[in-house]
Structures are given as C-alpha cells and as structure tokens.
Design goal:
CATH class: Alpha Beta
Number of strands: 21
GO molecular function: acyltransferase activity, transferring groups other than amino-acyl groups; serine-type carboxypeptidase activity
Family: Belongs to the peptidase S10 family.
Keywords: Carboxypeptidase, Hydrolase, Protease, Signal
Radius of gyration: 21 Å
CATH superfamily: Alpha/Beta hydrolase fold, catalytic domain
CATH topology: Rossmann fold
Protein name: Serine carboxypeptidase-like 2
CATH architecture: 3-Layer(aba) Sandwich
Largest sheet: 10 strands, mixed
InterPro entries: AB_hydrolase_fold, Peptidase_S10
Number of helices: 10
Number of domains: 1
C-alpha cells in the first residue's frame, strides 16, 4: 500500500444535451454533447443515466460516466464512491473526488480529477460557468461517479420503504449497479476494474470490492476484471477511528499537554483552514459520532461577499445554482418529479451504519491477492492519518520495503511504503 500525506483536489463535471434516452425503463442512459455553463461541444464523452437495483428495481441510482480521453478500450475502469453517506457523486466531480472529510484533496487546488471545474473566481451567484481541467484523471481512465445510497443527489426510490438503507444494502446495491452497468456497456467488460472512494466511501469501497470478488468466485455474470481498490482517509473501524482523534489533535499541537481534550474552534475537515461561523455543509463532529448540518446556499453567497477570512464552503454555492436549474435537469434527463431539491450532501437519509469495521474486508481482499492503495491527508481531524496507519498495521503484513519519504519538486511531502507482503507470498498489496 502507498500512504500519501497529502493528495489533491479534484473536479469535474457536468450536465447536458441528451441523445437516446428511455425514461420509462428501470435503466436508461444518455450521451451528452453539450451542457449549460460550457460553450460549444464537450471535448470528451459524457454519459448520465439510471440503473435500477433491488428486487423490483425500486431503487434508481443515478450516475455520471466520463470515458477516458486516451484509450477507453484499454484504460482502466474506475467506480468512484463519494463519502457522507449522502454526498453526491457530482460533488466529487466538480470539487474534490471524494466525500466530506479528506483534507488531502484540498491542498493542491489546481489539480482536479474530472475534465471540468466551476469557474469559482468569476462566480457571483448567477448561473455558473465551467472551465476545462488539463490534469483530469479521465486523461488515462474511464470513471463512473455514482449518486449513492438512494436519496443522494439525483438517485431516488419508487417506494418509501426503499429509502431505508444500511452499509450492507448500500454495498450490495452498488455491486448490483456495476453488474448491470457492465451488461449495458459490454465493451468495458475486458477493462481492468478498480473500486475507489474516500471518507465514508472508503468504508463502502472494500465491501463492494469483496462483493465483486466473491461474485466472480461464484460464477456470477458478468465476470469483472477486478484488479484492486483505492481508499483515502477512510472509515475503517469506528471505535479506532474515533479514539485516535484526540491523540492526533495533541500531536498536531491543537491541544496542550495540560488540556488533553478537544476544542470546538478547529475546522475538523482541514485544520489549517478557518472554521466557518455559519451553517456548514460539512459534518460537525463530536468525539463519538458525526452529523451533518444543512448548507444554505443563499446564506453562503451573502457571507462570501462580506465575511473574511475566505471559507471553502463558499465554493459549494455554484453546485446548488447549477444542479437545481430546470434547464440543467432537463439536459441531464433527470426524471421529472423525482427530485425537487437537489443537495450536495443529503443529511436526511434513513441510513443505518450496520458494519462497525471493514478491517476483515481488507484482510480477505489481501488474501485473495488484490492490489490496494491507501492514502491519507495529514490535516484531517475527522479521519486522521494515525487511523490509516493503525488499520494498515493491524493487518500484520510484512514490509518488502521500509517506509520512506516522497517528494514534490524536491520538498518532502509525506511518507510512503511501496509494497506490503501478506502471509501468503503469492498475495501482495501494492
């Protein structure tokens, strides 16, 4: 596994003009050539759509798919899972490539993973515009961004009962989604497959990867060419993750020796950034649990024009203006009446966290020989890097090479381990 002390920021995406869609079926897909906010034809292939999952396809999961700009037939396919639970894949596309907490994505704002970004510098509250990102992950990979679990982003259910979700059903539905997506896109069945996610998405990621591995072993069709998975600042073991927040805060000199307890004055998602004085779209975290407070884009916009210092939450206003626009939703082919108020992160999900730890999922995937990449930002108080180190060490793997610094332009930026060897010499995590 590799451990990155700081990672990057991300971006992307989109909306637009549709071709060939069937809004009455359980599954539908749309090829988008243009989108509000971007002038002219898109210089990459974008698809949006729904895949029905559940016994009677009562859960309709919405997705954004960007085809690789390099060699889509040979480049890997990545399923990206945002955090939350309840943060839209669109948030990962245009702002970060992850959920709500991984500060590692915020350090290099010029590097984004999707092909588009909002023009935040010129955004004044009116309809936002997009700019192209020359450093997108889609230069070398095909990526599916998924609105999950149901009730997130543009995903919806046809029954009230179907909105009740757990970690277990979320992983199962994501696996079912991917199976059906590949059946609808058989040209990608031969592509190397990776599942990736950060924050709470990093908890669901190994669960989905294990579903795929066990499905392959059981002969479930289609067989997926799973190579491995990626997790960042991920929830892994709830009690261990939480218990390491206080030692991390002390190590980072946020609390003194005499007052070895936490304060409420820090921005937990990124300890170097100012804490906003208004309602936050990111979670407010106690030492025993986390909860979401609602964002109010109107308040954010008014505050962004008068309050200093700058706060990252100001950036999120553009997504509300864009995604709640009727023309955008028509272009995205959002099924009319299914979503009345799009939210970047939906705090009102009926969601049960029924899996306390996924350490054994990591262990089983390692024993099966799958590759894994784990990275962790060093300024995240919600899921501190000490937690990532802890669960890696709990796997009791043997290091093929010792931890060593990695650099950017000659400056040490963190430490990494190139390879960890499992007990079975034929199974390696890299």
């Amino acid at each position: 596994m590799k451990y990155y002390s700081s990672f990057i920021h991300s971006l992307f995406l989109c909306s637009l003009l549709l071709i060939n869609t069937d809004t009455t079926s359980a599954s539908s897909q749309s090829i988008i050539n243009t989108l509000p906010g971007y002038p002219g034809t898109l210089p990459f292939k974008l698809e949006t759509g729904y895949i029905g999952v559940g016994e009677e396809d009562e859960v309709q999961l919405f997705y954004y798919f960007i085809q690789s700009e390099n060699d889509p037939a040979r480049d890997p396919l990545i399923l990206w899972l945002n955090g939350g639970p309840g943060c839209s894949g669109f948030s990962g596309l245009v702002y970060e490539i992850g959920g709500y907490s991984s500060s590692c994505f915020y350090l290099l704002q010029s590097f984004r993973h999707g092909p588009l970004a909002f023009d935040l510098e010129d955004f004044d509250g009116s309809f936002p515009s997009f700019t192209l990102n020359p450093y997108s992950w889609t230069k070398i990979a095909n990526i599916i961004f998924l609105d999950y679990p149901v009730g997130t982003g543009f995903s919806y259910a046809t029954t009230s009962q179907a909105y009740n979700t757990t970690d277990t059903t979320s992983a199962q539905y994501n696996y079912s989604f991917l199976r059906k997506w590949l059946l609808n896109h058989p040209e990608f069945l031969k592509n190397r497959l990776y599942v990736a996610g950060d924050s709470y998405g990093g908890k669901i990621t190994p669960m989905v990867a294990l579903e795929i591995a066990e499905g392959n072993e059981a002969g479930v069709e289609p067989r997926m060419l799973l190579q491995g998975y990626v997790v960042g600042n991920s929830f892994t073991d709830e009690q261990k993750d939480i218990n390491l927040r206080v030692p991390y805060a002390h190590r980072m000199a946020l609390v003194s020796d005499e007052h070895f307890e936490c304060t409420s004055r820090n921005n937990d998602a990124h300890i170097l950034e100012p804490k906003c004085k208004f309602m936050s779209p990111r979670p407010i975290v106690s030492w025993s649990h986390q909860l979401f407070l609602e964002d109010d884009p109107v308040d954010l916009l008014s505050l962004s024009k008068q309050e200093k210092p700058w706060c990252r939450n100001y950036n999120y206003v553009s997504s509300y203006v864009w995604a709640n626009n009727e023309t955008v939703q028509e272009a995205l082919q959002i099924r009319q009446g299914t979503i009345t108020d799009w939210k970047r992160c939906n705090k009102s999900l009926t969601y049960e966290q029924d899996v306390e730890s996924v350490l054994n999922h990591h262990r089983l995937l390692n024993e099966k020989g799958f590759q894994a990449l784990a990275y962790s930002g060093d300024h995240d108080l919600i899921l501190p890097y000490m937690s990532t180190l802890k669960w890696i060490r709990d796997l009791n793997l043997t290091l093929d090479e010792d931890w060593r610094p990695w650099t950017v332009d000659g400056q040490i930026a963190g430490v990494q381990v190139i390879q960890l060897q499992s007990i079975n010499p034929n199974n390696v995590l890299t």
